[in-house]
Amino acid sequence: MEEIRAAHSTPKTFKALARQAKERVKTGFWQDCKEDIDERMEKVKELGLNESKAGRYFKQKVSASLLGEKEDEFYLKVKDMLLKDGEVSDAIGRLTDKAHYESLTYEEKQRYTLSLSERYLRALERFRREYEFDKIDL
């Protein structure tokens, strides 16, 4: 899927979209996707995980790949931290951009910390939803 994303920059016209779709069909992209998802779903069954959630998750990953969406840097930072250290009590402190934080006024620091906390909680929730399926490697 990486090569599809790299080979297809953001299309500008309907004709470009059609050309890309035709290329995916010609190269067997959809057959490969189906086989990959089928294999992963088989693994999900073996592990006794929620098949419906897994199916939606894997299909969303394919869609994101086609659209060329990149992982959010903040989410990747949170994910890395959670995988290395688990849930820690000083997560907000670890995620704080110290140089930026020091340049803020008291009120701005409060808003920054609140915003960072909200982003962290969203990233943590996403991590919890996706973790069980991310660890399914073939």
Tell me about this structure:
By secondary structure, the protein is an all-alpha fold. The protein folds into two domains: 1-70, no CATH class; 71-138, no CATH class. It is built from eight helices and no strands. The relative contact order is 0.11.
The percent of residues in helical segments reads over 70%
Query: What is the chains' assembly state?
Result: single chain
Number of helices: 8
Head-to-tail CA distance between termini: 15 Å
Number of domains: 2
DSSP strand tally: 0
If you compute it from the alpha carbons, what radius of gyration comes out, rounded to the nearest whole angstrom? 20 Å
Query: What best-fitting shape do the alpha-carbon axes yield?
Result: flat
Low-pLDDT residue intervals, each spanning 5 or more residues: 1-9
Main beta-sheet annotation: none
Q: Averaging pLDDT over every residue, what do you get?
A: 84
Q: H/E element string?
A: HHHHHHHH
Structural class computed from helices and strand pairing: mainly alpha
Strand content: under 5%
Write a brief structural summary.
The chain has 138 residues and is mostly helical. The protein has 8 helices and no strands. It has helices at residues 2-7, 14-26, 29-47, 51-67, 73-85, 91-95, 98-102, 106-134.
